[in-house]
Specification:
There is one protein chain. The chain is 35% helix and 24% strand. The protein contains nine helices and ten strands. Strand 4 and strand 5 form a beta hairpin.
């Protein structure tokens, strides 16, 4: 479970309010879209979940961890619970697909036998079994994102967090990647996707949480395309791909 209660945060460098009295709960097994215009607070919301930022007031819990006072020594354990997918992939250029995915398991000292079994499973899940020995520069943009998703999955995390995962993809590939997140969700993982792409959001019947100026301005469990357009006009009007 991810839980925010009256959570507020202000950036000390410039005084900008990133989160303003945020109250939201994401239950285990949910698929939630976080939408809003550039600078609305979407990335700040994720950064708090990932332990990269701390709130100034209120309460935030991710699984067993209280993020408002989490100890530094607990952060590595928190992050093993989370699979993170970024817009820019962040693959290691000199490593093959296999080694990019296996890297996180080697860091925690898993045996090579177990690594082989786990990597084989996740590469099959993302339909990349024929790309095991390829390097990132030999992959298409969509394939690179699939490798990034496989890497996020390989530790078997309970929560997948995707920050604008389709920002570099065309509409067809974007739909394919989102369908893959749907599949991952159906296997039991909680999925939280930050996106500005409302056309993509309309294609999938999931909960939609809208952030505006650091506030939760709407939270709807299901919707029609018309309802989404009415609720998040500021996000629809934004052409920005990156959040402040």
């Amino acid at each position: 479970m991810i839980e925010f209660k009256n959570a507020s945060m202000k950036y000390k460098t410039n005084g900008v309010v990133a989160l303003d009295n945020v109250n939201v709960t994401i239950n285990d097994g949910e698929f939630v879209f976080i939408v809003g215009a550039s600078g609305a607070g979407k990335s700040s919301f994720l950064n708090v979940i990932m332990g990269q930022e701390k709130i100034d007031s209120g309460y935030v819990r991710v699984g067993p961890y209280r993020m408002h006072n989490i100890k530094k020594r607990d952060l590595p354990y928190l992050r093993r619970m989370l699979g993170i997918v970024f817009q820019d992939f962040r693959l290691i250029p000199k490593m093959t697909v296999y080694d990019n995915v296996a890297f996180a398991l080697r860091v925690i000292g898993m045996s090579e036998k177990k690594i082989r079994r786990r990597v084989k499973y996740v590469l099959k899940l993302v339909d990349l079994t024929d790309k095991t020995d390829n390097f990132p520069n030999q992959l298409s943009t969509g394939e690179k994102q699939r490798v990034a998703i496989a890497r996020a999955l390989v530790n078997n995390p309970g929560v997948i967090i995707a920050d604008e995962p389709t920002g570099n993809l065309d509409p067809v590939l974007s739909g394919e990647i989102m369908s893959l997140f749907d599949k991952i969700n159906s296997l039991g993982a909680t999925v939280v996707v930050v996106t500005h792409d409302l056309e993509l959001v309309r294609q999938f019947d999931h909960r939609v949480v809208t952030i505006e100026s650091g506030k939760i301005v709407s939270d709807i469990p299901s919707r029609t395309a018309e309802l989404v357009s009415a609720i998040v006009p500021s996000a629809a009007n934004s052409q920005e791909e990156n959040d402040g």
